[in-house]
Amino acid sequence: MIPRYSRPEMTAVWSPETKFRIWFEIEAHACDALAELGVIPKEAARTIWEKGGNATFDIARIDEIERETKHDVIAFLTHLSEIVGPDARFVHQGMTSSDVLDTCFNVQLTKAADILLADLDALLQALERRAFEHKDTVTIGRSHGIHAEPTTFGVKLAGFHAEFQRSRQRLVAAREEIATCAISGAVGTFANIEPAVEEHVAKAMDLAPEPVSTQVIPRDRHAMFFATLGVIASSIERLAIEVRHLQRTEVLEAEEYFSPGQKGSSAMPHKRNPVLTENLTGLARMVRSYALPAMENVALWHERDISHSSVERYIGPDATATLDFALARLTSVVDKLVVYPEHMQANLDKFKGLVHSQRVLLALTQAGVSREDAYRLVQRNAMKVWQEGKDFLEELLADKDVTAALGEDEIREKFDLGYHTKHVDTIFKRVFGRSA
Amino acid sequence: MIPRYSRPEMTAVWSPETKFRIWFEIEAHACDALAELGVIPKEAARTIWEKGGNATFDIARIDEIERETKHDVIAFLTHLSEIVGPDARFVHQGMTSSDVLDTCFNVQLTKAADILLADLDALLQALERRAFEHKDTVTIGRSHGIHAEPTTFGVKLAGFHAEFQRSRQRLVAAREEIATCAISGAVGTFANIEPAVEEHVAKAMDLAPEPVSTQVIPRDRHAMFFATLGVIASSIERLAIEVRHLQRTEVLEAEEYFSPGQKGSSAMPHKRNPVLTENLTGLARMVRSYALPAMENVALWHERDISHSSVERYIGPDATATLDFALARLTSVVDKLVVYPEHMQANLDKFKGLVHSQRVLLALTQAGVSREDAYRLVQRNAMKVWQEGKDFLEELLADKDVTAALGEDEIREKFDLGYHTKHVDTIFKRVFGRSA
Amino acid sequence: MIPRYSRPEMTAVWSPETKFRIWFEIEAHACDALAELGVIPKEAARTIWEKGGNATFDIARIDEIERETKHDVIAFLTHLSEIVGPDARFVHQGMTSSDVLDTCFNVQLTKAADILLADLDALLQALERRAFEHKDTVTIGRSHGIHAEPTTFGVKLAGFHAEFQRSRQRLVAAREEIATCAISGAVGTFANIEPAVEEHVAKAMDLAPEPVSTQVIPRDRHAMFFATLGVIASSIERLAIEVRHLQRTEVLEAEEYFSPGQKGSSAMPHKRNPVLTENLTGLARMVRSYALPAMENVALWHERDISHSSVERYIGPDATATLDFALARLTSVVDKLVVYPEHMQANLDKFKGLVHSQRVLLALTQAGVSREDAYRLVQRNAMKVWQEGKDFLEELLADKDVTAALGEDEIREKFDLGYHTKHVDTIFKRVFGRSA
Amino acid sequence: MIPRYSRPEMTAVWSPETKFRIWFEIEAHACDALAELGVIPKEAARTIWEKGGNATFDIARIDEIERETKHDVIAFLTHLSEIVGPDARFVHQGMTSSDVLDTCFNVQLTKAADILLADLDALLQALERRAFEHKDTVTIGRSHGIHAEPTTFGVKLAGFHAEFQRSRQRLVAAREEIATCAISGAVGTFANIEPAVEEHVAKAMDLAPEPVSTQVIPRDRHAMFFATLGVIASSIERLAIEVRHLQRTEVLEAEEYFSPGQKGSSAMPHKRNPVLTENLTGLARMVRSYALPAMENVALWHERDISHSSVERYIGPDATATLDFALARLTSVVDKLVVYPEHMQANLDKFKGLVHSQRVLLALTQAGVSREDAYRLVQRNAMKVWQEGKDFLEELLADKDVTAALGEDEIREKFDLGYHTKHVDTIFKRVFGRSA
């Protein structure tokens, strides 16, 4: 995690404090189940919760023990026995380090997923608010970066809303993928511990028992999780690039918010750089890149090897923290985006009505002009606009062959933007369940 | 698609014949809706189905027209008018090429997904059969490639079954992602066509209407689809690598089936190479790699650019055909896998009982021996096995300090493999819903 | 290889005809060396060349034999014996299939690299021509998509020339990486064949002997080769995206060539889509993606496994053919690019002189105005330009506080574009070794 | 950088201290050149070096200023003026932040490359020592994980040496790629600064001037750099996987060094896990993954956007630190690798001479036996070895049909391992330039 691109809540998920707290809970819940099964004294299970439940684990002390024992779980258990006393000997009975490590990693990932889901909710809210605000703000739709037909800025944002709704659904599914618990021993056979313990811990920690673990929880689950983050990051990139395009000097239909006091803005007022969305573009590349090592992690040898571990030390914190930061930054960009409807209109009018040429062409055909003739009529007027800067509507109205086929009102009607926005309500209802 | 790694049914999905057939259906269903709306004559819609419904489209002729018009959809429509006659002028009214192209691509992907789902079902069936066959075939479980504790070969296969069940679920979700239809015009505003047409075509073709399209169907859907294929491929790799390990000369617990007549096998009977699973390892790398350009395809500019198109011409056919081939090949490997239970047993016995050292250690502790003493006792006997090739059980029985703490029966009991397999039924019930 | 994105010369490199021809040459050169060493009769070596040297290999016949023998090299050798007669028994003595397959693959890759080098030369030539043509065509330089300072279009193209010069150098190095030959037997020990044979074949085929092969030529070489293609593709993407930006409706400083007769262009004259460079963007994604499986191919097990083979069947032809096509297409785009210097000038003037605010600020400071005051002076005039559309130069000349510090000539001089282009010659000399 | 996978020297390269020191040097050298050109007083340039040359920059103070100014370079310059005094106003004249930032990044990358080159040298030394130590240690060569023909462990290591020699060459080239300096202003035109300044700074800092920069140094250079690291990582993975295979319980031809006191090793003496090389496998995945965002960074918009920056904050430190750590760890693994020649021999003998079947087959053919008969003879004896555990040599000597064709000495000679090792000297000479 790079501090610059991490936020406190997500950083906390990956802190040693959180990790040891989760380890404790796994062990303590397991003790409850072991006590219930009669493997350890019920009294001991109670003591463990009482003494450890509110204890502050001393990270420095655990590190000190680990330097000696070269084993993180043993170091923790040793420290726990310092806190809990003799009953600590009942902790971890029949369990394997991976039972604790893998279940903890999944708990951390579900916590991370919950933060990301909240991030998505905030983003969806911002997109919805701005979409309704600009539901009727007419703007030119572009294909290939070239003017195509009018749409509204609200429809554009509605499209992103629909995309991030899908992101949310995917993340819910991805969270479910990794919300599992394994307490199954050295090769997953439950030789030294009853399946009931796993079931109890799973339930207590709001996880599902892993159907078959092999010391480790299978890594196809994590591959799917990180691949999903990569897809969400790609959607962030799409919106980021849209903003960057809109902020281009020549387009200037919207801008990232720039605080009045922000230095350098006034002497070169045109020089407001979309640095936030550029940054998001880069962050998206990173989150996406983590999908690959996650997929390579799947093919562990036999019941497990430990090659996945180093990878996860990077991508566990980095992918979630970066995506969290990116979603929050994007929400802020959307929330405060400065929109210039008048520039949108000006761009739309750049070619003086040419954007309606298609409709005129169609109208001529429907009025009985042959396709070839209609094309020729539109073309000769279009070229005057294109080459001489004339106004398309005026040219058409002055063209006898055109007016012979179409009345003035009819021609004017073809320049009505309402034609293009008549289904905006339908689209909004699809996306938001409401159009107002 | 490389013929060597493609199968006919999947190849057919990507054939021009299939594509044009789907194009026709989209257009013809749209005509039905347009007729219902009164935009075109009902008679025309009927004629289109009657003349085009069973027509064979002449690929060479369409190619010829395309060479002239440089536009694939126009070429098709021109050819269609040669088949349908004058009523063809009612086809494609108010539609955009992308309406046809994107909806068709999604139909092809859903067809591909259906084939892959059937592949997964076959694989699951093979895994289930072999898992039950070897439910009680004891074998050594390995972590880090090193002997750990016993398990059964059936449990190993059950783990893969659970993994491919997850693959199936993911693929069902991925299929749903791309089962959408868009008929919304140049920038997705339905300016020239009613949303009702999209709804009708969607329903008729078993798709969902795309909530917001922007001339194109948003590519986050496809990114998710191809990322999912990449994860499934990674699971294939895990099983392939397991087989490759088992077939190693020194391990030889299982082998890919080798037909009796297969050349070269008898003069060098040890030289049976796991070429199928090696091949699967490579194919998995390819399918995985396609996830990345699919994710880079998401951030199209504004309402669309066409940079995704070339990518999809590669990965659409290649990813689905390769995965289809790989799943079928894997199913065949599993189905015919030659398993050597006696080699499994021999490998398990390689260190003459040492695999049980952990249980003996625990028993000594539970019998009141201090942890340090117990460790020392186990260690001195273990080293005789390791260094001098002695038998662990015999050594323990001959060690007075050990027998002072544990009775002979108790010691022998620690060497019982049943201890490790007692929960196999539980695991099978979890995976298959039955243990017999 | 997708026909649509492949060119004949590269396709030929990957044809069965080429492959078998290379196989023959490897075998025949090896026979020469074996004859020289006295292992086989010199007469036989001569016969093999005489009969096979100009023979046309019958692909269908070889396929037929392969279907029977399930072995491609044996099938070829059998067919060769049909052509050469009894002396064919001296072919392939002491050799392994991989000796032929791996050396052939490297020959194909070097041939492919040679085509790509020629492609790069053509691209460099086009870039050089256009760079000199527009050496002095002033245009606005942009950072973050926002106007920054003036530069020339020639300088922009010179930058791309420098980048593709680097591409060329990298490709030369990459070609050298894979220009090796291995004829070293089953595990690379030369047990059955003298190293002299490898040395002879290498020399005859313009390759270097592989220092240590292990049945196969080590795949780090190929990883480096394909990674290099991925980097070159990324440079293609940069130029493609530059063109796409320049062609945006609002920018329109350059356009892909659009033939006068190209349909649809006149009725919507603004609707000329940069489809070639969009296509290049997608192709770049594909070529880049192939670097990853190539890297995963490196870690073959022990002396070799065959997991790399399927990967190479895809990426060998696909990466080289796609890059060849992309380079040729890019060259054509550059060659015919329609440049609009007047639009460049208009865009540069969009903010009526504001682009020179930085120079004015500096001049005021150098004239003794405090930094704060200078900033305030520039700012108040800049804001009039920005908000009211005034002309920056006129405002400055009308501002008493400004003219108190700077003379009119001095102020006017700050608006001289020559200031920005004075080192264009230096840059051109660096890149092209000449400035005219 | 994850502390666990980073080493101090590399960490220092990426520390704020190092960064600010490099910034200072760039600025101070630029002042020298500016003084030489008469732009600033020579006295000032001297003072800057005198006061700043040995100064300790106060990171906390710089951070404090940056929080205020929101600009890292300005914060540094402000702090520098606190150290240098009034002459500091001559620093950075005509320069752009990117001039400092990009040149500094390249200096850091060259420093990182130098450390990596030293790492590679150490690894090469270790490989050479162990290769000569085991030059004649016979071991079975394996293809597909299956026994093929004998080789020596020294030859295996020589192959890795050759591979890491190539890694070294590639890294030298990659270092050259990014050893450039740009001081060219806002869009690279040298409008505000003479090219001579860039040339001076480049020379002083042992860099080459960037032929054409565009505010930034072109990112194809960095893409090539990180792609090269990815290829080197893949070679690390190959050696790591080799060790993991050799350490498998059933193979046990070599082991990572395990210190005598290392806990847990004696009670389960077989349970020594190749955790270092498993770890290296994971680290290789990470380094490889960074190549992709580096390639995506190439296509910056126009003269630059800042999307690359966030990516480089991750991969600059992470890729170099991880690779440094991995190379050092690998060197240690190679250095201390515990090799078991007797296990190698035992594995080689596993199929009692069968490994020589190929040579016997050939000898029979050369002795005039028809191919079919020779095959049958070898086969019937081979099957007795395979199925009944007989000794291949004894069986052959007892087979009248065999001895009719070949004398006993001749048969015995076919079992001579020297046959396979006779060219080891040649291979060593190729790799090391010496065979002893």
UniProtKB/TrEMBL annotation, chains A, B, C, D:
MF terms (GO), sorted A to Z: (S)-2-(5-amino-1-(5-phospho-D-ribosyl)imidazole-4-carboxamido) succinate lyase (fumarate-forming) activity; N6-(1,2-dicarboxyethyl)AMP AMP-lyase (fumarate-forming) activity
Keywords assigned by UniProt, alphabetized: Lyase, Purine biosynthesis
Pfam families tied to this protein: ADSL_C, Lyase_1
Enzyme class: lyase
Keyword Cell cycle on entry: no
Annotated ranges, domain Adenylosuccinate lyase C-terminal: 352-432
Pathway in which this enzyme or protein is active: Purine metabolism; AMP biosynthesis via de novo pathway; AMP from IMP: step 2/2; Purine metabolism; IMP biosynthesis via de novo pathway; 5-amino-1-(5-phospho-D-ribosyl)imidazole-4-carboxamide from 5-amino-1-(5-phospho-D-ribosyl)imidazole-4-carboxylate: step 2/2
GO cellular component: cytosol
Record flagged with keyword Ubl conjugation: no
Stored SMART domains: ADSL_C (SM00998)
Any Gene Ontology biological process: 'de novo' AMP biosynthetic process
Reactions accelerated catalytically: (2S)-2-[5-amino-1-(5-phospho-beta-D-ribosyl)imidazole-4-carboxamido]succinate = 5-amino-1-(5-phospho-beta-D-ribosyl)imidazole-4-carboxamide + fumarate; N(6)-(1,2-dicarboxyethyl)-AMP = fumarate + AMP
Coiled coil: none
NCBIfam families named among the record's database cross-references: purB
Similarity remark: Belongs to the lyase 1 family. Adenylosuccinate lyase subfamily.
Record protein name field: Adenylosuccinate lyase
Species: Consotaella salsifontis
Taxonomic lineage: Bacteria, Pseudomonadati, Pseudomonadota, Alphaproteobacteria, Hyphomicrobiales
